[in-house]
């Protein structure tokens, strides 16, 4: 006698990585040969930067560094920033107090300025990252849109994500720097 049967379905529970897991992996060198972020508990491999991206990044780092002028601030590139328990983003450039521990991933509220250079990532930088950095209380967020030759300057982070204030400065226009009276200009 034939009996109907069902195929067993394998249902393994999905477990998200946490920001603490990501930080441990980072400290152990798991991402030494790649750029990665943790987004909603999932590891996301980031594409490598092209030469124009690196040049714009280096130029802006030098200009921002000049505005620090002896203040107790530090500047970093490709800095991991904790957004929440399941998300860690990597900012192209970040300015933060030099008193932060050097062996820990800082929280968003610890960062004074996060900058993304958007050569091919404009939608993500003005979308997901805009929401995440705002939700994490990063007080100042800039997106450098090289193709349009503008800088999107966001301030007043909102707890539910994003920013309440947004200005757009053209390349060549001075962009105010929160900790200095000296603006920076991109070209």
From TrEMBL:
Entry-linked PANTHER family: SLL1072 PROTEIN, SLR1083 PROTEIN
Pfam families given in the database record: Uma2
All residue ranges annotated as the Putative restriction endonuclease domain in the record: 21-177
Protein's organism: Sphingomonas pokkalii
InterPro entries reported for this sequence: Nuclease_put_TT1808, Restrct_endonuc-II-like, Uma2
Domain of life: Bacteria
Protein name listed in UniProt: Putative restriction endonuclease domain-containing protein
């Amino acid at each position: 006698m034939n009996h109907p049967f069902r195929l067993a379905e394998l249902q393994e529970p999905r477990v998200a990585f946490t920001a603490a897991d990501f930080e441990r992996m980072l400290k152990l060198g798991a991402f030494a040969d790649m750029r990665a972020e943790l987004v909603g508990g999932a590891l996301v491999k980031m594409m490598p930067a092209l030469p124009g991206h690196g040049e714009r990044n280096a130029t802006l780092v030098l200009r921002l560094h000049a505005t620090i002028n002896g203040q107790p601030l530090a500047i970093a590139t490709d800095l991991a920033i904790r957004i929440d328990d399941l998300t860690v983003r990597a900012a192209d450039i970040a300015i933060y107090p030099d008193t932060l521990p050097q062996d820990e991933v800082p929280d968003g509220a610890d960062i004074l300025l996060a900058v993304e250079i958007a050569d091919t990532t404009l939608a993500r930088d003005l979308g997901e990252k805009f929401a995440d950095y705002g939700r994490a209380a990063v007080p100042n967020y800039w997106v450098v849109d090289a193709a349009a030759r503008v800088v999107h300057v966001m301030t007043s982070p909102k707890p539910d994500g994003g920013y309440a204030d947004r200005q757009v400065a053209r390349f060549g226009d001075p962009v105010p720097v929160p900790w200095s009276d000296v603006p920076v200009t991109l070209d």
